[in-house]
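ASSEMBLY PREDICTION REQUEST
Request ID: AP-0331
Submitted by: J.K., bench scientist
Number of chains: two
Total residues: 1065
Priority: normal
Notes: Please return the full assembly, not individual chains.
Input sequences:
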Amino acid sequence: MNIQLRDLARSSAVRLVRNMLLLMLLAHTGAAGAAEHIVRGGFDRLIAALNRAASGDTVVVEPGTYSGHLVLERPVQLQGRPGAILDGGGTGDVVRVRAPDVTLRGLRIQHSGTSLNEMNAGIFVERTAARVTIEDNELERNGFGIWLDGCPDARILGNRIHGDPVLRSQDRGNGVHLYNVRGALVAGNEIWEARDGIYIDTSTDSVLADNDIHDLRFGIHYMYSHDNRVTANHTRQTRTGYALMQSRKLTVTGNRSVNDINYGILMNFITYSDIAGNRVLSVARGKGFVSGGADVAGAEGKGIFIYNSLYNSIHDNLFSDSDIGIHLTAGSEDNRIYGNGFVGNRTQVKYVATREQEWSLDGRGNYWSDYLGWDLNGDGIGDRFYEPNDAVDKLLWKYPLARMLMNSPAVQVLRWVQEQFPVLRSPGLRDSFPVMTPFGPQKG
Amino acid sequence: MASEKDKEGLSRRQFLATSVLAGSAGAGIAGGLIHGMSPAEAKSDDDERPHVPPGDLDEYYGFWSGGQSGELRIYGIPSMRELGRIPVFNFDGAIGWGITNESKRILGENAPFNGDAHHPHMSQTDGHYDGRYLYVQDKANVRVARIRCDIMRTDKIITIPNVSAIHGLRVQRVPKTGYVFCNAEFRVPQPNDGRHLDEPEKYGTLFTAIDGETMEIAWQVMVDGNLDNTDADYSGRYAASCCYNSEGGTLLAEMMRNERDWVVVFNFPRIEAAVKAGNYTTIGDSDVPVLDGRHGSDLTVYIPISKSPHGLNTSPDGKYFVANGKLSPTCSVIAIDKLDEWFEGKLKNPRDTVIAEPELGLGPLHTAFDGRGNAYTTLFIDSQIVKWNIADAVRAYRGEQVNYIRQKLDVHYQPGHNHSSMGETRDADGKWLVSLNKFSKDRFLLTGPLHPENDQLIDISGETMRLVHDGPAYVEPHDCIIVHRSKVRPLRVWKRDDPYFAETVGMAKQDGVVLEQDNKVVRDGKRVRVYMTSSAPVFGLTEFKVKRGDEVTVVVTNIDQVEDLAHGFCLVNHGINMEICTQQTSSVTFIADKPGVHWYYCTWFCHALHMEMRGRMLVEA
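STATUS: Completed
Returned structure:
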């Protein structure tokens, strides 16, 4: 599909992340008076250096493998030179952070234990460790990558987090796990072959931005977490890009989902949220068997699944080339749905409800690739309403060339029948102002 | 902005007529297309609905819990017709449950008039329903009740000591029931007498085994964490319970922390041996043996399971416990023969008892079985039933590339429990599945802000699940069982020697009254006993006289012989009404504190002269 997207939301998210990084650099400059300790050799030397370090000091780790389990009980910066490796030897947590204001940067952190019972992690951050910064590390084959255990104001930036593909999916930990935190920033990380990319549970006022998450179970897995921003992330080859559940006041903008399997975006009991400028492409289409059951009846891939979710704005998104573009059900009413592009989905809309809805706002509807109306006055808005999923749509999806037969008696009769007997319509859904081009005229 | 108006429905017949029209207009392609599309696939077609014609009987009984209504309900399956209600923990003014002396003997004096009944289960013998009893718990007031299936009335209610909020309940299947197992969900201090109020780490909870025949408590086992749902095996050796609060937290966030909670398995032979050997304690003034089954005990094994698991279901071949992951999209399949190995010391890790862990979808809560090797799990978040094959899930866990998922079916909306026909017995026949959905949203005409629940019937007899019926239900069925009608043998009329009213019969005997024929008033100081028969359309006494302040007991015996000829006794202005079915005796005791004429009348329409079936209580000032 040749669709040029305006992606304002994404670029603003990137700016936000850059600003955060800049602030942090300034903060580091301020701490320049602190001492610096250089470590080379083995784990004991590293421990010794940490014991010598005063609060605010920097411990620089020279290349080499440091095998053991670190517990950071003082506010220090641990800075790895390229080739510095902390290795947990397959047990426990590699690094456990207890003190506030700790920074871990430039390290390769690998081989924690894999016990889900013990919640083993590459980096386990305890409740007392406020304002931790974990930046530009490589986390490899740990249980969980990073577990934030109720610690406020964490910064998780630019890390590469790789799970252990030898383990079964469900036996791996999550890339980044946020439990009961506030004010976290998780940005610019790459996460793959873990269980879920970012799991956010009972956590508020956090920003998940610009992460690249692929080849795992759920990209961003949400449970009962309010007032968060999910912006400019990218998921691909996951079994759900963005599983947003039981949360309110989310800002979900400028994200991408490409080649995910069950859902691009799942909204379950999401209220008062803004879902805008996201692009969801090719959910499930033609994937064949994968764990989690694609290719069976009822497991069609859905660009967006809106379930028991009310009072949201869903606009200026693109849902393209999936089994189902949008599935809306379970009393998901009073949402504002406009300015979206629905392009080439096998079923554009699955609408299961008994009440009618209008999907446009102030004279601006959505772009529908199967809209067959016209725009005689050239204002960019179709002159005839759009109602999804009539039998003609089905025909056009199956046989695109049939578009040339639009004036044939068969099609005319079918259209006439549908107008006389509305049971043939997808029940209850109308876009009175379909836009003629993707992301067509803005309102006003 | 969304504008709404009600959509008019059109029937299947109109739909078909339309396609014929289109076809006859020469648009052959159109007819084919119409058949191929599913504009509202959530809807069933009229001609595919399981039809039980008027006058025909259903093949199955359905026994439904009534949730916070505190009652049980009887359905016919597949028609989903409601056939009756059995008051249990609730007050029921229709039959006088909570009014009659007979019901008060079962409820206890000053019993609370609410209950929270979740899990109804029938007694079994060798893994088959035996039609003797139903058992159901009361989460609200920590009770367990037994219902006699011959009369479909509650005949015992007991309070479980030392614990709070009885939730999961199941029966021993083999050799028979036997034990009734119940899980106390909330952790409290033991004894809960004011100690440790602010020390939640000292709270705890217990697994309880009740003797289902005596309704006395056999033993309790102290556990770590909490207890959610439970089920027993098919060998009489094990039961397993889910725990979602291994943290022992009192706040939501605290209960959510652990990646894995667990399933705890109870080993009965060892527990019984420990009781016999006297290796137990008691708590407070309760004399129930309490055993220590916390971590380290050899009476139990704790199997770590992700994440806050909820439902626990035993496959009807007796091979597996299935724990439903709730916050994990997986179910964990525990092999029961591996439990033997664990308890024999042959396994290193409790997780070695898990032999499959299929990824099914979001929010798996409960699993049912068809007896053909398939399982049906409710997905709360996806709002679907997923059908999966257990053997294929085992192969996948071993690393084979195999798709264990057969189908996903939308249900409306957000299913909790599901249950298949005969699915919790060896006789699982794979015909019907009920999905008990927590929300109906827009599926029915509005009934005010409180909506009905939606219990949907699904045909699982073929390869493909088919949704065939929407069943609105008043608050709030949690679970049901579907029992072949051959297993249930209710009486058509009462037997005169029924223990249900034997105490009343005994009282009459002491007064020298033959209930089936005598109509007389027996005065014993301020206590007055009024004995009368009822036979359509007359009460045996059409008047009786008492003094103001007398304690009056009215005993009515229905001496009609005809099936389905109930009488009622309602005393105007006294809050008294009760059922007296054919050959039944019912009684009620009250203070006659209002001088004057008070009519009593029959409340069950019994005769052409039903309106005339009444009498006067004359209260002297």
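REVIEWER COMMENTS: Chain B touches chain A through 70 residues (CB under 8 Å).
SIGN-OFF: pending second reviewer
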